[in-house]
Write a structure and sequence with these properties.
Length: 252
């Protein structure tokens, strides 16, 4: 696919939703900077794109480390000269435990990655997008069904995903003056390494354990591409994409 002249950064690009989104954007002609801690996983995504790495760079990045994030954005601008789309996708949960027993360091790590990491990436993106010609760009945050309602024993993940909604709204408002649009994709049970446990059964609010349905992650990648290609005067503010029969609507 020839370059479409547009540049994206995708965090967590070495697996799951980030990988699928990267493959969709590369296929559409985007240049993509792939970020994640495991460089070999990022390189595997590039290999799957089957285009000899043209239009892509793999930048080993820990979004829990502000210096590592700064390096990602420097390398992206050095390689491609601008930034049109940031997909804040990298995310983790804490080990499942009673809220009162969750070690503070586990809480802090989830906050650092899911919330502070997305915020610091957005700061870098805004600085680049407001100064480039043409001005502007798009930031897409990966929320979750957990941005709406918790699973049992998931306080760190749920709290940070609710906070991501606040980040999305603030970027949407503060970004207007720079032609920066911000969307949030709330995913429910896309089939990825994070949701492998669904097939073995996961705890429900009523104390039962239940196997939950999943759906093909490529539908999320298609959604991210769709949002990325909207003109900047149009925004898909929030979208929920989920397994049709997962327990959410109807409280079960
Ligand atoms: N799958 C779903 O149904 C679902 C539902 C709701 C929300 N989500 C959200 O979707 C996002 C992606 O999850 P996924 O389902 O695709 O699972 P996944 O395959 O586990 O993806 C998580 C990605 O984040 C990266 N990551 C984790 N910590 C990082 C760090 N400190 N710095 C940089 N990258 C880091 C991981 O790469 P490295 O290990 O190489 O760093 C990995 O590629 C997450 O934000 C998750 O909360 C997914």
């Amino acid at each position: 696919m020839p370059s479409n002249g547009r540049v994206a950064i995708i965090t967590g690009a070495g697996s799951g939703i980030g990988r699928s989104s990267t493959l969709h954007l590369l296929k559409d002609g985007y240049s993509v900077a792939l970020a994640g801690r495991r460089k070999e996983a990022l390189e595997e995504t590039i290999t799957l794109a089957g285009n000899d790495g043209t239009g892509s760079i793999a930048v080993s990045t820990d979004v829990g480390d502000p210096e590592s994030i700064a390096n990602l954005f420097e390398q992206t601008v050095e390689a491609f000269g601008r930034l049109d789309v940031l997909f804040n996708n990298a995310g983790i949960g804490a080990p499942r435990t009673n809220m009162e027993d969750l070690p503070l360091e586990d809480w802090q790590r989830v906050v650092d990655v899911n919330l502070t990491g997305s915020f610091v990436c957005a700061q870098h993106a805004i600085r680049i997008m407001k100064d480039q010609t043409p001005m502007g760009g798009r930031i897409i945050n990966n929320g979750s069904i957990s941005a709406h309602t918790p699973r049992p024993d998931s306080v760190a993940y749920t709290s940070t995903k609710h906070a991501v909604t606040g980040l999305t709204k603030s970027i949407s408002l503060d970004g207007r003056k720079y032609d920066i649009a911000c969307s949030q994709v709330d995913v429910g049970n896309a089939s990825t390494p994070m949701t492998q446990r669904m097939s073995g059964g996961v705890p429900q609010a009523n104390g039962e354990t239940r196997i939950e349905p999943t759906f093909n992650v490529d539908h999320v990648g298609e959604t991210v591409l769709y949002i990325s290609n909207l003109p900047l005067d149009t925004n898909l503010q929030f979208v929920t994409i989920m397994a049709t029969k997962m327990p959410f609507v109807g409280r079960g």
